Every structure is written in C-alpha cells, then in structure tokens.
Amino acid sequence: QVQLVESGGGLVQPGGSLRLSCAASGFTFSTYAMSWYRQAPGKEREMVAEISTYAGITNYADSVKGRFTISRDNAKATVYLQMDSLKPEDTAVYYCRRPPTYWGQGIQVTVSS
C-alpha cells in the first residue's frame, strides 16, 4: 500500500533552516508529481510547494517563494523541502502528498525564539 513518511521537523529560531524529507513506498514514485502542504492552527491546509515527475518543474505558494525549495530523488523515492529564512508564520504541521488522495502523517515545524 502507499506509504508516505515525513521526517526532519522540529523547533527552529526565526531565520533558521530545516529540511523535511518524505520517504515514499508502495507505488512507482518517479511517475507521480509530489507536493508539500501545511496546516497552521485554526487555518485551512494550504499547498506550499509541488514538483513534477522527471522534468522537476516546481511551483510554490507566494508566501514561501525564494525561501523554500522542493526537490526529489527518484532513486531514493524521496521528496524534500528545504526551508530557509524561516518565519514564525511558517509554524504548522507539514504534510507530504501524492495525488489524488494520499497523505503522510504530518510533521510539526515550529519557528520561535
């Protein structure tokens, strides 16, 4: 069955960096676009970044453009989210998604001094 397992979250100070990983299994990873979403307390889940299959075409939410970078390693069946210049408003639970309906369990990212 499809499994998506996120790792790499935690507590970081404003201006710091984190790299999230999502290890995928149970499907042919290279043939699916992948994305990262996040959900802050009291807010709706929102798309953060997405990446296409082989061409690696990327798309970002305006709020993270220039600070976050999505990438993938098809050989390792893993998608990454490099998050730099983090802000308190980036605090949320981050989810890995494989369309149409598969989600990871989510991982907490907290940006606070």
Explain the overall architecture.
- With 113 residues, this protein is an all-beta fold.
- The protein is 0% helix and 50% strand.
- It has no helices and 11 strands.
- The strands form 2 sheets. Strands 2, 4, 5, 6, 9, 10 and 11 form a 7-stranded mixed beta sheet that branches. A 4-stranded antiparallel beta sheet has the order 1-3-8-7, with no helix packed on it.
- The mean pLDDT is 96.
Offer a few descriptive terms.
113 residues; four-stranded antiparallel sheet; 0% helix
Note poorly predicted spans.
none
- Helix proportion of residues, in percent? under 10%
Q: Which of globular, elongated, flat, extended, rod-shaped describes the shape? A: globular
Number of strands: 11
The end-to-end distance, rounded to whole angstroms, is 40 Å
Mean of pLDDT:
96
User: What portion of residues belong to β-strands?
Assistant: over 45%
- SSE class: mainly beta
Radius of gyration: 13 Å
What's the helix-strand series?
Answer: EEEEEEEEEEE
Helix segment count? 0
Provide the fold topology.
Blueprint lengths: L2 E5 L2 E3 L5 E8 L8 E6 L6 E6 L6 E3 L7 E6 L4 E6 L8 E7 L3 E2 L3 E5 L2
Parallel strand pairs: 2-11
Antiparallel strand pairs: 1-3, 3-8, 4-5, 4-9, 5-6, 7-8, 9-10, 9-11
Could you write a compact summary of the structure shown?
The chain is mainly β and 113 residues long. The protein has strands at residues 3-7, 10-12, 18-25, 34-39, 46-51, 58-60, 68-73, 78-83, 92-98, 102-103, 107-111.
